[in-house]
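Thread: quick sanity check before group meeting

JM: Hey all, I'm pulling together slides for Thursday and realized we never actually wrote out the predicted structure for the chain we discussed last week. Dropping the sequence here so it's in one place. If anyone has concerns about the input, flag it before I start.
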Amino acid sequence: MLKIDRSFVLDLLTHQNDAVIAHTTIALERRPGLRVRAEYVETVAQRDFLLEHGCDAYQGYLCARTLPADAAVSVI
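JM (edit): ok, ran it. Output follows.
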């Protein structure tokens, strides 16, 4: 699995180079057996950009806040 690092995700809406790097990384997912996940997705706009460009796997505060281990176990 390839991960799009938070440093690119955080600024992908404001810095053209970060958007190009994210888009190019997502394009690699078209290769058989390769998956791409974006890290630290915090806003709906970031998520929408990623979805629009074909990245359907992401993690970050938009999905769930960090939990202590004992709280995470009770959610499962």
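AS: nice. The beta strands are 2-4, 36-38. The mean pLDDT is 88.
JM: adding both to the slides.
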